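1st attempt posting a full record on here, be nice pls
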Amino acid sequence: MNITAVRSGIAANANTIDGLNCYGYVPDSISEPAFYAAEVDVTYDTSYGGDDELTVTCRVLVGRADDEASQRLLDAYLSRGAHSIKLAIEAEPTLGGACDDLRVQRVQGYRYYQHQNSTYVGAELVVQVIGSPEE
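the predicted structure (as tokens):
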């Protein structure tokens, strides 16, 4: 699997949510609300056929001008409703051929985050991706 293509594909799927600024990399600066693919863990040869597994930790960050409204928006992104990041990411599970399958495993780290000297309320979404190694 091409890690760059996977990260970009996850961001492209999330970008179908109106108003959410999405990045397939860790951006130097963000426009809020923002979603980006951050850390990547790779497990090689998870099957006898040689498939690899990626665990991509993504972050969603929301401004905190109004703490209650900010957390309601974050909750909407993490729920299974119209603004669901989970449903958007899983809508096209092969990411245009970049992988064989994926699923959003969990949400973790619902808290305040520092990014470029600004503080946001946010959370992490952990995405499991499986696919064949590049030839």
